[in-house]
């Protein structure tokens, strides 16, 4: 009798199931994406390498899923919002025109492919949650666990001196600082969700308090100025949004934990030293001066190419008299998201970028006062992530940083799915179910 065709198996005495097309389509393929997305969320705070690998596999899963369905969106999955699809089409079209009209069309087209790859995090998050809706309950815990791991690794191996090669290579210090500015507000919101549950919510509350403490340790150890600015401000905003839930002992713990984290991050000596150093003519002042030079050059390039810019990835590096650190690359961004888009894609490209970035916020705006806890949490978290990008983009070209933008678009995709993509048959209570409820993780 052939192996696995009929009759008992050789060891368990039971028939061995064939991996049929139906099983692959209904059970195996749908499970792969959510698993990869969970790994991505867990690793985003602490491992650049694992994030890149898991996202590449997630993107491959999305392509296989589309090819398996013959490029047709299945009726079982809510379609992506048309407004966002229009914004994406406008952005990609403008980016393509800027690349073809630019000084380096080949580099521009390669940059376009990279942009499309990074932006795909939003629909991939939507697809992963549509295939496993209950994963939404685990995401805050995955992010919190990632922050705890980050705190342990950075405390022992990274730090301001950046002495550990593994921490620099695997973690990616710049990526780490940007991500750490995005996640603490989500932890504050998750604490607020646990607060109304009373005694049953205390274990969850303690976990998210631990995650907030880990955020403080990681941010202080990494000592990134942007994270030190963004995290307290955005935590305070999220705290203010959740004031109405602070009505019991758990809520009091939430208030104390949030305020303590905000105060410690805003007043610790490491933060003060970083800002004093900017104006004291020591240490980082060389980098600050060079950054100002990049800004001036970006403005000059924009003046010469105001409509479609000089072309994506075509802005030249600083001339020798302005290149203080002697960076050898022939091309360089402007160390500012807005100036980089102005210089490389002109005013039309910057407008298209802003439309793409702000479209999810417009769609989520009505849910900022939602009585659905899930929609409330993720809509506010998406707004906080957007504000972090807006602040971080003033001093760095974070759009060119894949790890930061993976997190940005995956949170946006999660929030949009929670607000607009859930269905009653998903088994996750929400807006489509009607009424109010107490969410159980």
Using the CA coordinates, give the radius of gyration: 23 Å
**What is the straight-line distance between the termini?**
48 Å
Which residues sit in consecutive blocks of at least 5 with pLDDT less than 50?
1-17, 159-169, 430-441
Shape: globular
Order of helices and strands: HHHHHHHHHHHHHHHHH
Structural class: mainly alpha
Q: What is the count of DSSP helices, taking H or I runs of 4+ residues?
A: 17
Strand segment count: 0
Strand content: under 5%
Helix content: 55-70%
Overall pLDDT metric: 78
Sheet of most strands:
none
Write the layout of secondary structure elements.
Elements: H1 21-43, H2 48-68, H3 82-101, H4 105-119, H5 121-131, H6 139-157, H7 165-171, H8 173-180, H9 184-194, H10 202-222, H11 225-241, H12 249-267, H13 269-279, H14 285-304, H15 337-364, H16 373-392, H17 402-421
Helix pairs in contact: 1-2, 1-5, 1-6, 3-4, 3-15, 5-17, 6-10, 8-10, 8-11, 8-17, 9-10, 9-11, 9-12, 9-16, 10-12, 11-12, 11-16, 14-15, 15-16, 16-17
């Amino acid at each position: 009798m052939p192996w696995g065709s009929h009759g008992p198996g050789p060891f368990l005495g039971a028939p061995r199931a064939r991996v049929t097309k139906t099983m692959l389509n209904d059970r195996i393929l749908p499970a792969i994406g959510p698993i990869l997305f969970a790994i991505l969320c867990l690793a985003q705070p602490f491992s650049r390498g694992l994030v890149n690998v898991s996202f590449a596999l997630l993107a491959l899963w999305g392509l296989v899923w589309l090819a398996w369905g013959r490029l047709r969106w299945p009726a079982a999955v809510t379609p992506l919002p048309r407004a966002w699809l229009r914004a994406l089409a406008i952005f990609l079209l403008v980016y393509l025109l800027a690349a073809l009209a630019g000084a380096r069309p080949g580099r521009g087209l390669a940059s376009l492919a990279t942009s499309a790859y990074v932006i795909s995090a939003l629909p991939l998050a939507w697809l992963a949650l549509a295939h496993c809706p209950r994963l939404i309950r685990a995401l805050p815990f995955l992010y919190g666990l990632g922050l705890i791991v980050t705190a342990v690794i950075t405390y022992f191996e990274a730090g301001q001196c950046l002495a550990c090669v593994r921490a620099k290579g695997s973690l990616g210090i710049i990526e780490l600082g940007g991500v750490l500015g995005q996640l603490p507000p989500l932890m504050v919101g998750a604490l607020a969700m646990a607060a109304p549950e009373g005694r049953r919510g205390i274990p969850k509350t303690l976990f998210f308090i631990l995650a907030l403490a880990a955020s403080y340790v990681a941010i202080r150890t990494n000592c990134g100025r942007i994270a030190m600015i963004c995290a307290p401000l955005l935590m305070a905003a999220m705290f203010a949004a959740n004031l109405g839930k602070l009505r019991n002992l758990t809520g009091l713990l939430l208030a104390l934990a949030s305020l303590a984290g905000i105060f410690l991050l805003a007043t610790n000596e490491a933060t003060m030293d970083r800002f004093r150093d900017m104006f004291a003519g020591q240490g980082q002042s060389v980098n600050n001066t060079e950054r100002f030079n990049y800004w001036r050059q970006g403005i000059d390039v924009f003046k010469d190419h105001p409509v479609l810019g000089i072309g994506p990835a075509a802005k030249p590096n600083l001339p020798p008299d302005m290149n203080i650190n002697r960076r050898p690359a022939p091309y360089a961004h402007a160390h500012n998201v807005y100036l980089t888009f102005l210089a490389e894609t002109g005013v039309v490209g910057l407008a298209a970028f802003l439309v793409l970035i702000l479209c999810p916020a417009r769609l989520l705006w009505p849910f900022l006062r939602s009585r659905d806890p899930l929609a409330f949490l993720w809509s506010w978290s998406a707004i906080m992530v957007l504000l972090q990008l807006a602040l971080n983009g003033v001093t760095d070209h974070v759009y060119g940083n894949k790890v930061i933008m993976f997190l940005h678009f995956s949170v946006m995709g999660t929030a949009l799915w929670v607000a607009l993509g859930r269905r009653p048959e998903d088994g996750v209570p929400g807006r489509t179910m009607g009424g109010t409820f107490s969410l159980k993780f």
